[in-house]
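Hello again, I could really use a second opinion on something today. For a while now I've been wondering how a particular protein folds. Please have a think about how the structure follows from the sequence. Here's the protein in full, and shout if anything looks odd to you:

***
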Amino acid sequence: MTVRYVMIARLPDGGLADFDAYERAVLPLLAEHAGRLEQRLRTLDDMAEIHVISFRSDADFAAYRADPRRQAVAPLLESSGAVIELLPVRDLE
């Protein structure tokens, strides 16, 4: 069963470069864990980024989160100062 999440990253002034570097490293890993970036949006002021992501299963999502390559670049996310909110969502259709 497909699982879907909305990720909201709120970025402080000066955090965009490290956040973008983190995203460049981790977004390509999604496909290796049966994940897909369905939509990537950024506010006009560059202070927030929103992703809609889906995975084939909860286990695939857990494997993505535990991927050592993702963990290796986690310091970039931390240094960006981004505050992350992750919301499990469902289709209403």
User: Anything to note?
Assistant: Residues 28 and 44 are 24 Å apart (CA to CA). The longest strand covers residues 3-10. The chain has one domain: 3-89.
